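Tutorial, part two.
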Amino acid sequence: MMNIKQAKDCIENTVRLYLKKNEFGEYRIPVVRQRPIFLLGAPGIGKTAIMEQIAQELSVGLVSYSMTHHTRQSALGLPFISHRQYGGRETAVSEYTMSEIIASVYEVMEESGTKEGILFLDEINCVSETLAPSMLQFLQYKVFGRHSVPEGWVIVTAGNPPEYNKSVREFDVVTMDRLKVLSVDADYPVWKEYARERGVHAAILNFLELKKEYFYKIETTVNGRSYVTARGWEDLSGILALYEEEGMKVDEALIGQYLHNEKIVREFAAYYDLFNKYKKEYETEEILSGTAPEQTAERARIAAFDERLSLLGMLTDKVMSEMRENLESSDYLTDLFQGLRAVKAVVEKGCQEPVVVDMLQSQAQARRQLLQSRQKAGNLSGEERRKSNRIIRFLEEAGRGIVLEASGSQQEAFGFVKARFEDELDRMKKETVRIGGRLSHLFAFVEKAFPEGNEMLILVTELTVNQAGAGFISRFGCEPYQRYNERLMLSERQSLLQEEIAALDL
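Running the prediction step on this input gives:
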């Protein structure tokens, strides 16, 4: 049994090795020996999400299907009669049109230009009775009807254990022996890392820190089956953010649409109200700006454990969100700069033709085409989409600005673009300094409010394991983090040494 992160690493490594070629362009592991991967785990733990991440990280195509939505005809294709010559005699032969699933793979290849990818078939062990025999044949031979999965496309399947789904058909030994089986279990610490990166609502993360047993829960009661999954928490997070933007009331009726357990719904609704109460009373903006009155730290010091943890979670989440946006801005400007360098090189050669606007338009068009291609391939991340759209917007607006305001030489035209870029760079640098200051204020507040508690350890740990936090600090630095991190590491080494001495029994 492994967690979803371990499964992701295993699948990613497998796909990478399956796609590895020799000097003649042949796959090192022949297609016939490439075992389909079978991801077996409870519903809603993130199986589909990791497939999207793998496709993005490997820059390969992704075609996803839920097999419960397919009939025998859509999976295999429709039968038709063709005529063949056998031994000089014409014979009517039954054939099949191309499977909808395999046709989708070819469509992605044609539209995106991606020749390799992942064919992900979810709920593979819940197919209809008429489709089951063909599915077993597919897993063994990678063929639907008379049509094979194209070379370069790795088959990954997923399914639920029988205890979670009455429709499950258990595979026989012969079939299982042809699969690479990965059994996955729900793991809150791993999901928490993922949730931080996805910007899951702080109220949810804080609540689950207090009630880890509520992260994933499926049980059968006298009133029927109740369930709460990782998917439910993430979807609830998205709707909470929108409700808050619109000033709409969040109640148990809304929460119950995503969490299907009455007890957990009641407790989270109560905590959500409490979370918002803390948010108002503590005035987190004042804390992060360093202007909070002395009594704020005093109140936090004497507060109950859940209140202290909620406050720390709110503050940490807000700073991490800002650091995440800042890193995206930094990556956007770095990528944009590379394109503008090409424009600068042409201008510096003394070209008198109106090339600047044309090059900006050309780069915008190329970026848009790449965006569309990756979208069709199914390997476009949200971060990449946002970055590309920002670059396209900058290039197009700069081009229009040149036409309206810089009608002189090409040097003047590029100077206009350069000035706009430097304005954005200056804003990013100022935002970096501002966030760094807020992070320092956060450390100062935690030191003042919780001198004897574990809150500082929690803060340093969260910043270390969070991709945005670690990325921001490694790129721009943070003196309080370095100081407390070294102090905590020294304390940990001393504790380990004391344990080793005690174990010697001198």
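The chain is about 60% helix and 10% strand. In part three we will examine how such features are distributed along the chain.
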